[in-house]
Amino acid sequence: MAIKIVRLPTDQFRARGYKTTPNPFFLLKTKRNLGESIRIGIVVGKSVHATAVKRNFWKRQARAALALHASGGSDILIIIQPSVNRLTRKQFKTEVVKTLAKTK
């Protein structure tokens, strides 16, 4: 059975108990949840890019990378930094996978 991916509730964005793994391009925060689904929250501020098109692009890339490699029953919050604009899609995906592997 496929693992269901759900949006992380906004009240969990400021919750405590996350293990933070820093990266020059983003912060990855993870913690276990009681369900079997993966809850993903993505924050891309205006400092990353002025247009919503580019911010949504980075959100889609982060969601796709996390969905493939995240384990079930976890909450994941990723906060993307402005330095991410120096990366290509492939480089971003490898950075996410490498950082996610460090958290396990």
Description:
It contains two helices and five strands. It is of the alpha/beta class and 104 residues long. The chain has a single domain, classed as Ribosomal Protein S5, domain 2, CATH 3.30.230. Helix 1 packs across helix 2. The longest helix is centred in the middle third of the chain and has 18 residues. It starts with a strand and ends with a helix. The model has no long low-confidence stretch (mean pLDDT 91).
Please outline what is shown here.
This protein is of the alpha/beta class.
- The spatial strand order of the largest sheet comes to 1-4-5-3-2
Distance between the termini: 22 Å
CATH topology name, in short, is Ribosomal Protein S5, domain 2
Structural class: alpha/beta
Write the layout of secondary structure elements.
Elements lengths: L4 E3 L11 E4 L3 E7 L5 E7 L7 H18 L4 E7 L8 H15 L1
Parallel strand pairs: 1-4, 4-5
Antiparallel strand pairs: 2-3, 3-5
Features:
104 residues; Ribosomal Protein S5, domain 2; single chain; alpha/beta; 5 strands; 2 helices; 5-stranded mixed sheet
